[in-house]
Task: inverse folding
Protein backbone atom coordinates (compact mmCIF):
# COMPACT_ATOMS: atom_id res chain seq x y z
CA UNK A 1 0.00 0.00 0.00
CA UNK A 2 1.43 3.37 -1.01
CA UNK A 3 1.10 6.64 0.83
CA UNK A 4 1.76 10.30 0.21
CA UNK A 5 5.18 11.37 1.43
CA UNK A 6 5.31 14.87 2.98
CA UNK A 7 8.53 15.53 1.11
CA UNK A 8 8.33 19.31 0.72
CA UNK A 9 9.07 21.69 3.57
CA UNK A 10 8.51 25.25 2.42
CA UNK A 11 7.92 28.48 4.34
CA UNK A 12 7.80 26.65 7.64
CA UNK A 13 5.33 23.86 6.82
CA UNK A 14 5.22 20.40 5.30
CA UNK A 15 3.33 20.06 2.01
CA UNK A 16 1.63 16.87 0.83
CA UNK A 17 0.63 18.37 -2.54
CA UNK A 18 2.44 20.73 -4.89
CA UNK A 19 2.22 22.19 -8.36
CA UNK A 20 4.81 19.95 -10.00
CA UNK A 21 2.78 16.77 -9.75
CA UNK A 22 4.15 13.67 -8.07
CA UNK A 23 6.33 10.64 -8.68
CA UNK A 24 6.64 7.16 -7.28
CA UNK A 25 9.32 6.30 -4.73
CA UNK A 26 10.64 2.79 -5.41
CA UNK A 27 12.24 0.21 -3.11
CA UNK A 28 15.24 -0.85 -5.26
CA UNK A 29 15.50 -4.24 -3.58
CA UNK A 30 12.15 -5.49 -4.93
CA UNK A 31 10.89 -2.68 -7.22
CA UNK A 32 7.79 -2.12 -5.11
CA UNK A 33 6.29 1.36 -4.76
CA UNK A 34 6.92 2.82 -1.30
CA UNK A 35 4.82 5.93 -1.77
CA UNK A 36 4.09 9.03 -3.83
CA UNK A 37 6.28 12.12 -3.58
CA UNK A 38 4.91 15.62 -4.27
CA UNK A 39 7.07 17.71 -6.59
CA UNK A 40 7.61 21.44 -6.46
CA UNK A 41 6.26 23.64 -9.22
CA UNK A 42 7.11 27.24 -10.06
CA UNK A 43 4.98 28.64 -7.25
CA UNK A 44 6.59 26.47 -4.55
CA UNK A 45 10.11 27.23 -5.79
CA UNK A 46 9.39 30.94 -5.75
CA UNK A 47 7.99 30.68 -2.23
CA UNK A 48 11.00 28.64 -1.04
CA UNK A 49 13.46 31.25 -2.31
CA UNK A 50 11.52 34.13 -0.78
CA UNK A 51 11.22 32.28 2.53
CA UNK A 52 14.97 31.58 2.58
CA UNK A 53 15.63 35.28 2.01
CA UNK A 54 13.45 36.26 4.98
CA UNK A 55 15.04 33.63 7.19
CA UNK A 56 18.57 34.68 6.29
CA UNK A 57 18.10 38.08 7.92
CA UNK A 58 17.06 36.34 11.15
CA UNK A 59 19.55 33.46 11.19
CA UNK A 60 22.61 35.53 10.31
CA UNK A 61 21.86 37.73 13.33
CA UNK A 62 22.15 34.76 15.68
CA UNK A 63 25.53 34.54 17.35
CA UNK A 64 27.89 31.74 16.28
CA UNK A 65 27.44 30.29 19.76
CA UNK A 66 23.66 30.11 19.29
CA UNK A 67 23.96 28.59 15.83
CA UNK A 68 26.41 26.02 17.16
CA UNK A 69 24.00 25.07 19.93
CA UNK A 70 21.20 24.34 17.47
CA UNK A 71 23.45 22.21 15.29
CA UNK A 72 24.81 20.26 18.24
CA UNK A 73 21.27 19.45 19.37
CA UNK A 74 20.41 18.35 15.85
CA UNK A 75 23.41 16.01 15.82
CA UNK A 76 22.28 14.45 19.09
CA UNK A 77 18.79 13.92 17.70
CA UNK A 78 20.29 12.23 14.64
CA UNK A 79 22.13 9.81 16.91
CA UNK A 80 18.99 9.14 18.95
CA UNK A 81 17.00 8.46 15.78
CA UNK A 82 19.78 6.67 13.90
CA UNK A 83 18.07 3.27 13.74
CA UNK A 84 14.84 4.64 12.30
CA UNK A 85 16.65 6.96 9.89
CA UNK A 86 18.86 4.08 8.70
CA UNK A 87 15.83 1.89 8.03
CA UNK A 88 14.25 4.64 5.92
CA UNK A 89 17.52 5.17 4.05
CA UNK A 90 17.95 1.47 3.31
CA UNK A 91 14.40 1.03 2.07
CA UNK A 92 14.68 4.02 -0.26
CA UNK A 93 18.26 3.70 -1.46
CA UNK A 94 19.06 0.00 -1.05
CA UNK A 95 22.40 -0.07 0.79
CA UNK A 96 22.89 -2.63 3.59
CA UNK A 97 21.49 -1.53 6.93
CA UNK A 98 24.94 -1.54 8.56
CA UNK A 99 26.19 0.91 5.92
CA UNK A 100 23.08 3.06 6.35
CA UNK A 101 23.56 3.19 10.11
CA UNK A 102 27.20 4.22 9.68
CA UNK A 103 26.07 6.94 7.27
CA UNK A 104 23.62 8.42 9.77
CA UNK A 105 26.13 8.39 12.61
CA UNK A 106 28.91 9.88 10.48
CA UNK A 107 26.47 12.54 9.29
CA UNK A 108 25.78 13.46 12.89
CA UNK A 109 29.52 13.81 13.44
CA UNK A 110 29.74 16.11 10.41
CA UNK A 111 27.00 18.39 11.76
CA UNK A 112 28.65 18.30 15.18
CA UNK A 113 32.05 19.26 13.79
CA UNK A 114 30.67 22.14 11.75
CA UNK A 115 28.80 23.35 14.83
CA UNK A 116 32.12 23.79 16.59
CA UNK A 117 33.68 25.42 13.53
CA UNK A 118 30.90 28.03 13.60
CA UNK A 119 32.67 29.47 16.64
CA UNK A 120 35.98 29.68 14.81
CA UNK A 121 35.24 31.75 11.73
CA UNK A 122 38.06 34.06 12.65
CA UNK A 123 38.89 37.36 11.01
CA UNK A 124 42.15 39.29 11.35
CA UNK A 125 43.49 42.78 11.88
CA UNK A 126 46.12 44.36 9.63
CA UNK A 127 48.44 47.15 10.84
CA UNK A 128 47.79 50.44 9.01
CA UNK A 129 50.52 51.75 6.72
CA UNK A 130 49.92 55.46 7.31
CA UNK A 131 48.98 57.77 10.16
CA UNK A 132 45.33 58.61 10.64
CA UNK A 133 44.09 55.08 9.99
CA UNK A 134 42.98 53.43 13.22
CA UNK A 135 42.41 49.88 12.00
CA UNK A 136 42.11 47.47 9.10
CA UNK A 137 39.84 44.51 9.87
CA UNK A 138 39.10 41.49 7.65
CA UNK A 139 35.87 39.65 8.54
CA UNK A 140 34.07 36.60 7.26
CA UNK A 141 30.29 36.99 6.96
CA UNK A 142 27.66 34.56 5.59
CA UNK A 143 27.25 34.69 1.83
CA UNK A 144 23.44 34.56 1.89
CA UNK A 145 20.69 32.08 0.97
CA UNK A 146 22.13 28.89 -0.52
CA UNK A 147 20.66 26.49 -3.08
CA UNK A 148 22.06 23.03 -2.31
CA UNK A 149 21.69 20.05 -4.65
CA UNK A 150 22.47 16.55 -3.41
CA UNK A 151 22.57 13.08 -4.96
CA UNK A 152 20.85 9.82 -4.09
CA UNK A 153 23.89 7.69 -3.23
CA UNK A 154 24.31 9.19 0.27
CA UNK A 155 20.91 10.77 0.94
CA UNK A 156 21.67 11.80 4.54
CA UNK A 157 25.44 12.32 4.44
CA UNK A 158 25.50 14.69 1.47
CA UNK A 159 22.74 17.00 2.76
CA UNK A 160 24.42 16.98 6.18
CA UNK A 161 27.65 18.30 4.67
CA UNK A 162 25.91 21.23 3.00
CA UNK A 163 23.39 22.02 5.72
CA UNK A 164 25.97 21.70 8.50
CA UNK A 165 28.41 24.10 6.84
CA UNK A 166 25.90 26.60 5.48
CA UNK A 167 23.89 26.86 8.70
CA UNK A 168 27.04 27.10 10.81
CA UNK A 169 28.20 30.02 8.68
CA UNK A 170 24.87 31.80 9.13
CA UNK A 171 23.25 31.04 5.76
CA UNK A 172 19.72 29.88 5.07
CA UNK A 173 19.32 26.94 2.67
CA UNK A 174 16.98 25.67 -0.01
CA UNK A 175 17.87 21.97 -0.20
CA UNK A 176 16.98 20.14 -3.40
CA UNK A 177 17.55 16.55 -2.32
CA UNK A 178 17.24 13.31 -4.30
CA UNK A 179 13.76 12.24 -5.36
CA UNK A 180 14.81 8.60 -4.99
CA UNK A 181 15.26 8.97 -1.20
CA UNK A 182 13.01 11.78 0.04
CA UNK A 183 12.24 10.30 3.45
CA UNK A 184 15.92 10.31 4.36
CA UNK A 185 16.31 14.04 3.68
CA UNK A 186 13.00 14.78 5.40
CA UNK A 187 14.17 12.97 8.55
CA UNK A 188 17.34 15.07 8.61
CA UNK A 189 15.40 18.30 8.21
CA UNK A 190 13.06 17.25 11.02
CA UNK A 191 16.04 16.79 13.34
CA UNK A 192 17.13 20.36 12.61
CA UNK A 193 13.66 21.73 13.21
CA UNK A 194 13.24 19.79 16.45
CA UNK A 195 16.62 21.13 17.57
CA UNK A 196 15.29 24.69 17.39
CA UNK A 197 16.26 25.85 13.91
CA UNK A 198 13.95 28.71 12.89
CA UNK A 199 11.51 26.97 10.50
CA UNK A 200 12.09 29.09 7.41
CA UNK A 201 15.88 28.73 7.66
CA UNK A 202 15.75 25.46 5.73
CA UNK A 203 13.52 24.63 2.78
CA UNK A 204 13.30 21.10 1.35
CA UNK A 205 12.19 20.73 -2.26
CA UNK A 206 11.98 17.97 -4.85
CA UNK A 207 11.14 18.20 -8.52
CA UNK A 208 12.34 18.02 -12.10
CA UNK A 209 16.09 18.69 -11.66
CA UNK A 210 16.64 21.12 -14.58
CA UNK A 211 13.47 23.04 -13.69
CA UNK A 212 14.39 23.32 -10.01
CA UNK A 213 17.98 24.30 -10.78
CA UNK A 214 16.95 27.01 -13.24
CA UNK A 215 14.34 28.47 -10.89
CA UNK A 216 16.65 28.61 -7.88
CA UNK A 217 19.77 29.85 -9.66
CA UNK A 218 17.87 32.58 -11.46
CA UNK A 219 16.10 33.80 -8.33
CA UNK A 220 17.79 36.97 -7.02
CA UNK A 221 17.54 35.81 -3.39
CA UNK A 222 19.93 32.89 -3.96
CA UNK A 223 23.55 33.97 -3.50
CA UNK A 224 25.37 30.63 -3.67
CA UNK A 225 24.95 27.17 -5.19
CA UNK A 226 26.47 23.93 -3.93
CA UNK A 227 26.10 20.61 -5.73
CA UNK A 228 27.14 17.02 -5.29
CA UNK A 229 26.58 15.30 -8.61
CA UNK A 230 28.00 14.28 -11.95
CA UNK A 231 30.65 16.22 -13.82
CA UNK A 232 28.22 16.99 -16.63
CA UNK A 233 25.49 18.38 -14.37
CA UNK A 234 28.05 20.23 -12.26
CA UNK A 235 29.41 22.01 -15.32
CA UNK A 236 25.91 23.05 -16.37
CA UNK A 237 25.16 24.51 -12.96
CA UNK A 238 28.56 26.22 -12.79
CA UNK A 239 27.91 27.89 -16.14
CA UNK A 240 24.48 29.06 -14.97
CA UNK A 241 26.00 30.43 -11.76
CA UNK A 242 28.65 32.29 -13.73
CA UNK A 243 25.97 33.92 -15.91
CA UNK A 244 24.07 35.10 -12.83
CA UNK A 245 27.09 35.99 -10.67
CA UNK A 246 26.44 33.33 -8.06
CA UNK A 247 29.10 31.64 -5.91
CA UNK A 248 29.55 27.94 -6.74
CA UNK A 249 30.92 24.83 -5.04
CA UNK A 250 30.89 21.50 -6.88
CA UNK A 251 31.78 18.06 -5.57
CA UNK A 252 31.62 16.10 -8.80
CA UNK A 253 32.56 12.67 -10.11
CA UNK A 254 35.81 10.78 -9.98
CA UNK A 255 37.54 7.68 -11.35
CA UNK A 256 39.77 6.65 -8.48
CA UNK A 257 42.97 4.75 -9.20
CA UNK A 258 44.59 2.31 -6.79
CA UNK A 259 48.32 1.63 -7.09
CA UNK A 260 49.44 -1.63 -5.47
CA UNK A 261 53.23 -1.55 -5.24
CA UNK A 262 55.52 -4.56 -5.41
CA UNK A 263 56.26 -4.43 -1.69
CA UNK A 264 52.59 -4.27 -0.60
CA UNK A 265 51.02 -7.11 1.37
CA UNK A 266 48.43 -8.48 -1.10
CA UNK A 267 46.30 -10.10 1.61
CA UNK A 268 46.07 -6.77 3.45
CA UNK A 269 45.25 -4.89 0.25
CA UNK A 270 42.53 -7.38 -0.70
CA UNK A 271 41.01 -7.31 2.78
CA UNK A 272 40.47 -3.56 2.45
CA UNK A 273 39.88 -3.26 -1.29
CA UNK A 274 36.99 -5.63 -1.91
CA UNK A 275 34.68 -4.07 0.72
CA UNK A 276 35.74 -0.58 -0.40
CA UNK A 277 35.04 -1.34 -4.06
CA UNK A 278 31.61 -2.87 -3.52
CA UNK A 279 30.45 -0.60 -0.69
CA UNK A 280 27.09 0.91 -1.65
CA UNK A 281 27.29 -1.27 -4.78
CA UNK A 282 30.13 0.93 -6.03
CA UNK A 283 27.89 4.01 -6.03
CA UNK A 284 30.48 6.18 -4.30
CA UNK A 285 32.18 9.16 -5.96
CA UNK A 286 35.55 8.21 -4.45
CA UNK A 287 35.07 4.47 -5.02
CA UNK A 288 38.25 2.61 -6.09
CA UNK A 289 37.88 1.64 -9.76
CA UNK A 290 41.18 1.28 -11.64
CA UNK A 291 43.50 -1.12 -9.79
CA UNK A 292 47.10 -0.89 -11.06
CA UNK A 293 48.95 -3.87 -9.57
CA UNK A 294 52.66 -4.57 -9.86
CA UNK A 295 53.38 -7.49 -12.20
CA UNK A 296 54.98 -9.42 -9.34
CA UNK A 297 51.61 -9.53 -7.51
CA UNK A 298 49.21 -9.29 -10.43
CA UNK A 299 48.14 -12.90 -11.10
CA UNK A 300 47.55 -13.81 -7.48
CA UNK A 301 45.85 -10.51 -6.76
CA UNK A 302 43.40 -10.95 -9.64
CA UNK A 303 42.63 -14.53 -8.64
CA UNK A 304 41.88 -13.64 -5.02
CA UNK A 305 39.97 -10.46 -5.90
CA UNK A 306 37.67 -12.40 -8.24
CA UNK A 307 37.10 -15.10 -5.63
CA UNK A 308 36.19 -12.50 -3.00
CA UNK A 309 33.87 -10.66 -5.41
CA UNK A 310 32.07 -13.90 -6.31
CA UNK A 311 31.62 -14.71 -2.62
CA UNK A 312 29.80 -11.47 -1.79
CA UNK A 313 26.26 -12.03 -0.63
CA UNK A 314 23.73 -9.94 -2.52
CA UNK A 315 20.36 -9.15 -1.01
CA UNK A 316 18.02 -6.52 0.35
CA UNK A 317 19.70 -4.01 2.59
CA UNK A 318 17.29 -4.83 5.39
CA UNK A 319 18.87 -8.30 5.74
CA UNK A 320 21.84 -8.05 8.17
CA UNK A 321 23.62 -10.79 6.21
CA UNK A 322 23.64 -8.76 2.99
CA UNK A 323 27.08 -7.58 1.88
CA UNK A 324 26.00 -5.71 -1.27
CA UNK A 325 22.59 -4.28 -1.98
CA UNK A 326 20.94 -3.24 -5.23
CA UNK A 327 21.70 -0.29 -7.44
CA UNK A 328 19.54 2.70 -6.66
CA UNK A 329 17.41 2.67 -9.80
CA UNK A 330 16.86 0.91 -13.11
CA UNK A 331 18.94 3.43 -15.09
CA UNK A 332 22.08 2.21 -13.33
CA UNK A 333 21.49 -1.35 -14.57
CA UNK A 334 21.38 -0.17 -18.17
CA UNK A 335 24.55 1.85 -17.72
CA UNK A 336 26.45 -1.06 -16.16
CA UNK A 337 25.55 -3.24 -19.14
CA UNK A 338 26.91 -0.59 -21.52
CA UNK A 339 30.24 -0.52 -19.66
CA UNK A 340 30.56 -4.31 -19.85
CA UNK A 341 29.51 -4.52 -23.50
CA UNK A 342 32.01 -1.84 -24.52
CA UNK A 343 34.83 -3.52 -22.61
CA UNK A 344 34.13 -6.90 -24.22
CA UNK A 345 33.89 -5.35 -27.68
CA UNK A 346 37.37 -3.86 -27.17
CA UNK A 347 38.92 -7.19 -26.18
CA UNK A 348 38.70 -7.04 -22.37
CA UNK A 349 37.90 -10.13 -20.32
CA UNK A 350 35.11 -10.19 -17.74
CA UNK A 351 36.29 -12.60 -15.05
CA UNK A 352 33.14 -12.46 -12.94
CA UNK A 353 29.79 -10.77 -12.96
CA UNK A 354 28.97 -8.60 -15.93
CA UNK A 355 25.21 -9.01 -15.84
CA UNK A 356 22.07 -8.19 -13.91
CA UNK A 357 21.48 -10.68 -11.11
CA UNK A 358 18.57 -13.05 -11.71
CA UNK A 359 16.27 -11.89 -8.94
CA UNK A 360 13.79 -9.07 -8.29
CA UNK A 361 15.26 -5.66 -7.68
CA UNK A 362 17.99 -3.58 -9.31
CA UNK A 363 20.86 -5.98 -8.57
CA UNK A 364 23.99 -6.12 -10.73
CA UNK A 365 26.61 -8.77 -10.10
CA UNK A 366 29.98 -7.73 -8.65
CA UNK A 367 32.12 -7.44 -11.78
CA UNK A 368 35.87 -7.70 -12.37
CA UNK A 369 37.39 -6.80 -15.74
CA UNK A 370 40.98 -7.28 -16.96
CA UNK A 371 42.80 -6.45 -20.20
CA UNK A 372 40.67 -3.34 -20.71
CA UNK A 373 42.29 -0.95 -23.22
CA UNK A 374 43.11 2.54 -21.99
CA UNK A 375 40.52 3.97 -24.39
CA UNK A 376 37.68 1.73 -23.24
CA UNK A 377 34.67 3.34 -21.61
CA UNK A 378 35.26 1.70 -18.24
CA UNK A 379 38.81 3.10 -18.13
CA UNK A 380 37.78 6.63 -19.06
CA UNK A 381 34.26 7.18 -17.66
CA UNK A 382 33.21 6.70 -14.05
CA UNK A 383 31.05 3.53 -13.90
CA UNK A 384 29.49 4.44 -10.54
CA UNK A 385 28.62 0.83 -9.90
CA UNK A 386 30.03 -2.56 -8.84
CA UNK A 387 32.74 -2.76 -11.52
CA UNK A 388 36.46 -3.07 -10.81
CA UNK A 389 39.17 -2.99 -13.49
CA UNK A 390 42.57 -4.54 -12.77
CA UNK A 391 45.71 -3.96 -14.83
CA UNK A 392 49.42 -4.77 -14.31
CA UNK A 393 52.29 -2.29 -14.19
CA UNK A 394 56.04 -2.70 -14.17
CA UNK A 395 57.46 0.67 -13.13
CA UNK A 396 56.11 3.08 -10.55
CA UNK A 397 56.60 5.94 -13.01
CA UNK A 398 54.20 4.20 -15.38
CA UNK A 399 51.63 3.52 -12.64
CA UNK A 400 51.60 7.16 -11.52
CA UNK A 401 51.30 8.37 -15.10
CA UNK A 402 48.33 6.08 -15.74
CA UNK A 403 46.71 7.08 -12.46
CA UNK A 404 46.99 10.76 -13.46
CA UNK A 405 45.95 10.29 -17.09
CA UNK A 406 42.26 11.15 -16.70
CA UNK A 407 40.69 14.60 -16.20
CA UNK A 408 39.06 13.33 -12.99
CA UNK A 409 40.92 13.74 -9.72
CA UNK A 410 38.75 13.28 -6.66
CA UNK A 411 40.04 10.28 -4.69
CA UNK A 412 43.09 8.09 -5.25
CA UNK A 413 44.75 5.31 -3.28
CA UNK A 414 48.04 3.43 -3.04
CA UNK A 415 49.53 0.61 -1.03
CA UNK A 416 53.20 0.28 -0.10
CA UNK A 417 55.31 -0.63 2.93
CA UNK A 418 58.12 1.74 1.94
CA UNK A 419 57.95 5.16 3.62
CA UNK A 420 59.84 6.94 0.84
CA UNK A 421 57.49 5.49 -1.78
CA UNK A 422 54.48 6.49 0.30
CA UNK A 423 55.63 10.10 0.40
CA UNK A 424 56.33 10.07 -3.33
CA UNK A 425 52.87 8.71 -4.11
CA UNK A 426 51.25 11.30 -1.86
CA UNK A 427 53.12 14.09 -3.59
CA UNK A 428 52.80 12.97 -7.23
CA UNK A 429 49.31 11.50 -7.50
CA UNK A 430 46.92 14.19 -8.75
CA UNK A 431 43.79 14.09 -6.62
CA UNK A 432 42.04 16.11 -3.97
CA UNK A 433 42.35 13.20 -1.53
CA UNK A 434 45.00 10.49 -1.50
CA UNK A 435 44.77 7.50 0.83
CA UNK A 436 47.98 5.56 1.45
CA UNK A 437 47.41 2.05 2.82
CA UNK A 438 43.73 2.72 3.55
CA UNK A 439 40.52 4.06 1.97
CA UNK A 440 39.26 6.29 4.79
CA UNK A 441 39.78 9.68 3.14
CA UNK A 442 36.32 11.01 4.01
CA UNK A 443 36.22 12.17 7.63
CA UNK A 444 34.33 15.09 9.23
CA UNK A 445 37.59 16.79 10.18
CA UNK A 446 39.11 16.61 6.68
CA UNK A 447 38.32 18.71 3.59
CA UNK A 448 36.60 16.71 0.84
CA UNK A 449 36.92 17.89 -2.75
CA UNK A 450 38.47 17.22 -6.12
CA UNK A 451 41.00 18.57 -8.57
CA UNK A 452 40.65 19.13 -12.32
CA UNK A 453 37.17 18.15 -13.62
CA UNK A 454 36.19 16.61 -10.30
CA UNK A 455 35.01 19.82 -8.74
CA UNK A 456 35.56 23.23 -7.25
CA UNK A 457 35.95 23.88 -3.53
CA UNK A 458 35.80 21.60 -0.50
CA UNK A 459 33.26 20.29 1.96
CA UNK A 460 33.76 19.23 5.59
CA UNK A 461 36.74 20.11 7.72
CA UNK A 462 37.48 23.67 8.75
CA UNK A 463 37.70 24.48 5.03
CA UNK A 464 34.09 23.41 4.50
CA UNK A 465 32.64 26.58 6.01
CA UNK A 466 34.71 29.02 3.99
CA UNK A 467 32.76 28.75 0.69
CA UNK A 468 29.62 29.82 2.59
CA UNK A 469 31.21 33.09 3.63
CA UNK A 470 32.28 36.34 2.02
CA UNK A 471 35.34 38.33 3.02
CA UNK A 472 34.80 41.94 4.06
CA UNK A 473 37.57 44.45 4.63
CA UNK A 474 36.71 47.31 7.01
CA UNK A 475 39.12 50.20 7.46
CA UNK A 476 38.51 52.90 10.06
CA UNK A 477 40.23 56.26 9.90
CA UNK A 478 40.47 58.96 12.53
CA UNK A 479 37.53 61.43 12.39
CA UNK A 480 39.88 64.31 13.22
Result:
Amino acid sequence: MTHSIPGLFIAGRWLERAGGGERAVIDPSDESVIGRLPLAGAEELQLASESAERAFRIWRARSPLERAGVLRRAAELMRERAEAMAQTLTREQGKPIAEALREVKLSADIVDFQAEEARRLYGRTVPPRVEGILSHTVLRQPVGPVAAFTAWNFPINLPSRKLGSALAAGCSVVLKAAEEAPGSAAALVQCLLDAGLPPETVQLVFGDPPTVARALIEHPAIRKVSITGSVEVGRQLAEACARHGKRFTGELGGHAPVIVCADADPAFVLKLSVPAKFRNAGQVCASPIRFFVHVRLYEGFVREFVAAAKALRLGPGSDPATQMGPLAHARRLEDMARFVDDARARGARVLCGGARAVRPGYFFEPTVIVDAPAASRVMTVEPFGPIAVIAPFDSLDDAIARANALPYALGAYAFTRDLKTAHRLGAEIEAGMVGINHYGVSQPELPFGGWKASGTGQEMGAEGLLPYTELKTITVGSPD
About this structure: The chain has two domains: 8-252+454-474, 256-443. The domain at 8-252+454-474 is CATH 3.40.605.10 (Aldehyde Dehydrogenase; Chain A, domain 1). The chain has a mean pLDDT of 96.
